[in-house]
Amino acid sequence: MQVLRVLFSVLAFVTTALAVKFEVEAKPQGSHPRCIRDFVSKGTLVVANIKTTATVNDGQSLTVFILDNKGNEYGRKKNAGDTVRMAFTAHTDAAFDVCFDNVLTNSRSNQKLSKNIELDVEIGANARDWNAVQAAEKLKPTELELRRIEELTDEVVRELEYLKVREARLRNTNESTNRRVKMFSVGVILSLLALGAWQIYYLRTYFRSKHII
């Protein structure tokens, strides 16, 4: 049992999790939102838990939305309250942004308004409700930990496979670039040789026409 706990701790350490606290200042409509970025692979479950210091009619309105760099939007919550939970499954391998747009609704207020944000992003096996899994499948504590370790291991394997594919793609790009650079260098050398030969021919023709040589 102790071995399982140690193994689970190691695997949990290498999985992705993000927890940050920051402040979002209220700005006029159309201002650039504040975004936090992370990367996720295709088919991975992501859960974003957000806590804010939100009160009603405080002169600011917070909108929370999630989108990736492919243009997919996974959720949007307007007038977000003190607690927001947003979950989605990634459509593709991409970086995703959890964005906060805090709009100033009371333009006459001279006071600087802001909201404190606490963002906790859980990805993959860490995002699953394991208590619900245990209750639904009637798993013993040891079986539950083995199940969690299995999913964490699968995530690590998928991540390694993705890195392997990415490394191969980058290597192919590098080799293609090297070939193009070599061809360009050869082309430049041949062009210089041709230009030099033409200059020699032109000068010899010119000097002969002037009876210099």
Automatic annotation (TrEMBL):
Residue ranges of domain GOLD in the record: 33-123
Zinc-finger is among the record's keywords: no
Matching SMART domains: EMP24_GP25L
Domain of life: Eukaryota
Cellular component GO terms, alphabetical: membrane
Subcellular location(s) per record: Membrane
UniProt cross-references to PANTHER family, sorted A to Z: TRANSMEMBRANE EMP24 DOMAIN-CONTAINING PROTEIN
Bilayer disposition of the protein: Single-pass type I membrane protein
Regions that span the bilayer: 183-203
Keywords from the named record: Membrane, Signal, Transmembrane, Transmembrane helix
Signal peptide extent: 1-19
Protein family (similarity comment): Belongs to the EMP24/GP25L family.
One Pfam family recorded for the sequence: EMP24_GP25L
Protein name as catalogued: GOLD domain-containing protein
InterPro entries: Emp24-like, GOLD_dom
